[in-house]
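Intended use. Records like the one below are meant for learning the mapping from a protein sequence to its folded structure. Do not use them to infer anything beyond what is encoded.
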Amino acid sequence: MKKIAFYTLGCKVNQADTASMEALFKARGYEVVPFNEDADIYLVNTCVVTNEGQRKSRQIIRRSVRHNPLALTVVTGCYPQTAPDEVRAIEGVDVILGNKDRTGIVDLVEKALAEKQDAVLDNVQKMTVDTKFEELGVGTETDKTRAFLKIQEGCNQYCTYCIIPFARGPLRSRSIEGIKEEVAKLVSAGYKEIVLIGIHLGCYGKELRKDGINISLYDAVCAALSVEGLERLRLGSLESVEVEPRLLDLMATEPRFAKQLHLPLQSGCDKILSAMHRPYDTAKFKNLLADIRAKVPGVSITTDVIVGFPGETEEDFAVTMDFAKECAFTKMHIFPYSKRKGTPAESMPNQVEEKVKAERATRLGVIDNELVQASLNAMVGKTVSVLFEQPVDAGHMEGLCSEYFRVIVPGTKELSNKICNVNITGTEADALIGEII
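Structure written out for the chain above:
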């Protein structure tokens, strides 16, 4: 039995892709081992969303080659999709594959093992408007309590800072039947929570229009919830302008539908939002948040913010800080702007110095800490539904509630993968403290 080791960089979609590839190799008799162990094949699933992601991808590729020069080194994902020549030139790389036709990954690897050629086996393929969603099965052999199910791929938004449309191709979606099938498989494997994810999740179904009927994310959510035994469903990141009213109605009334949304803001300054080619301004974003909170009281809203975008002045950044406070997010994920080759923002004037980006990220981080603490304090005295995951220490367990807060209670590992109602009694650092009812 040949051994294969995986290393995943980047987003939850990449993690889901890796789980799918692991399942393909296991089905063909391969043993999956930890990346730091000896293996016959090392597969690195890469990320290019930032310079740091691309740098680390190169670092991990080289580490795998050094660890076992005789093993096969396979590089997949966004890095070979966007820069195949660069990846091909890394000494020791044997096989490269982008984000298309990963259903054939095992055959590709076995071809490389059999031929033992010096040249890199290159199977990176361009994606066109006709590219279809690959209905890859999900991986189910894991000790985790939450599963990530990719139901959408690609993006047509072309924000000026973002390389993802080039790395992931056009919009395409998993079929409704495929969603039901994969959710049923995950429920049977023991998962209590499933997170629906995608590159541009809010555009799910745009190309699936059938018999004159529009298909949207709401239909995907309903399909997942129709599977008997599913105890909790959560959504990955989606655009605020794509949150349908009927999706909010469902969230307000369906207890299994987690009351949490991740809505990327990216900037709180209209000038910067326009330069980013974002599909809203601050007034629209603020109104959408108000609508969401009115329909789903107690909903938790997290976000992403980019600081130091080209042309962002100190005054622009101050506007963003004020707007972030006004939005009262549960949590902000803060990223210094990263110049990506081939994107419009790369050549924009007035690029912001790295030290200024870092300083702004730190200052916005202070506001984020204040918002997190305010959100935690507001939960004290409430009763929440918690899916327990792992021990914190010998006498305490932690898990995530519907609103996506970490909750710690007295308990042992027997609580793992169980959902319990918890009364929140206090806070500790970035977590809630409570007692099982």
